[in-house]
């Protein structure tokens, strides 16, 4: 019984001290450093050759121990070939780039238009800059220039959009001579 009373008194005392410290802790303000940029255009190049351009109406730069760039009003990324001709275009309504991990998350209405005329759509897509791969574990729809539609539960691609569709099915045009 004495041990139970002692434990109860210790518990009440420790809670009292913690509650007493709450105003001190909550009054300490930690600044969150965020830079706001409007009408952003970023050019990515390799050996003085432009590889891509990024456009965002608003970019928030979060300067934390794990810095990231947030594009809450959407982003457009245009990839270029050696002749500076557009080869692929990626758009989304929201994006975030995690600086340390070198990963870009594209969310909400992600649309990719490839140089071959295909349109790839999803609600989420990731670009891993380290391994230069796009991937998604969300539903993906791919429409070809001739109207074929493919659906998948996952997607993986290199930066030229040579892709693999997981859990795929779809509606495809079969040439008449292939049926005979």
From TrEMBL:
This is LPS export ABC transporter periplasmic protein LptC. The lineage of its organism: Bacteria, Pseudomonadati, Bacteroidota, Sphingobacteriia, Sphingobacteriales. The gene is lptC. Gene3D superfamilies: Lipopolysaccharide (LPS) transport protein A like domain. Transmembrane segments: none annotated. InterPro entries: LipoPS_assembly_LptC-rel, LptC. GO terms for cellular component: plasma membrane. GO terms for molecular function: lipopolysaccharide transmembrane transporter activity.
